[in-house]
């Protein structure tokens, strides 16, 4: 599986087993050069492995939604649409990154397919937007909270911890909860978003991992002392 290959590329780290005792007889410059060489070799191997991994098949977003330009390389919203005079933006992240499990990833693939979906509904002339924090699953979408927040650009609203996030959604009466679900459902926010957002997030993580291996290797390799002839 594609995501398993990415996971294995980050787990296998042969250089992590080296202890200081192994290098006790070498001089400090020799240690530094040897460690740098081994680290660069490992980074290159993982870079090549991940670069050759085929991503999942392309999935188009649901009708009415468009992909925001540059979203793959940023941390802001992914999808955007209009509904009447409203602008609706969607951001996604894995629940496992916020509430990690016990680390047994092979047995918890289902945990990696549970997402937090941030839904931002804004109107022209208003300095606030309606924000929904939702849980997105393969066959369902549930609202965790509803809040009115200042309009913020990019991913800034994800870091806003000063605004009251509203009452616990489960404490609202059933009729109000159903009305809020109907509100976002009417705007196309439902479990049908799952397949696209899952594939998009895999692609983003793949690109980020490839970039990480490359940039870390480049940084370590810069201005290295020349080998003695």
TrEMBL record:
Concerning InterPro entries, the annotation shows: MAM33, MAM33_sf
The Gene Ontology CC terms held by the record are: mitochondrial matrix
Q: Which residues form a coiled coil?
A: none
Q: Name one Pfam family in it.
A: MAM33
Protein name per its UniProtKB record: Mitochondrial glycoprotein family protein
- In which organism is this protein found? Salix udensis
């Amino acid at each position: 599986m594609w995501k398993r290959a990415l996971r294995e590329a980050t787990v296998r780290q042969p250089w992590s087993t080296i202890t200081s005792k192994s290098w006790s007889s070498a001089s400090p410059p020799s240690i530094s050069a040897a460690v740098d060489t081994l680290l660069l070799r490992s980074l290159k191997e993982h870079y090549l492995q991940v670069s050759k991994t085929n991503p999942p098949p392309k999935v188009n977003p649901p009708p009415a939604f468009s992909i925001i330009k540059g979203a793959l390389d940023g941390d802001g919203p992914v999808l955007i649409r209009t509904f009447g005079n409203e602008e609706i933006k969607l951001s996604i992240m894995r629940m496992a990154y916020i509430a990690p499990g016990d680390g047994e990833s092979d047995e918890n693939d289902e945990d990696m397919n549970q997402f937090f979906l941030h839904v931002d509904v804004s109107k022209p002339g208003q300095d606030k937007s309606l924000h929904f924090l939702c849980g997105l699953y393969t066959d369902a979408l549930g609202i965790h909270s509803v809040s009115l927040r200042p309009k913020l650009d990019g991913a800034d609203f994800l870091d806003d911890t000063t605004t009251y996030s509203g009452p616990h959604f489960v404490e609202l009466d059933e009729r109000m909860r159903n009305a809020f679900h109907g509100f976002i459902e009417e705007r196309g926010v439902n479990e049908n978003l799952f397949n696209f957002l899952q594939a998009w997030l895999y692609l983003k993580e793949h690109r980020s991992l490839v970039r990480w291996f490359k940039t870390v290797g480049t940084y370590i390799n810069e201005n290295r002392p020349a080998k003695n002839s």
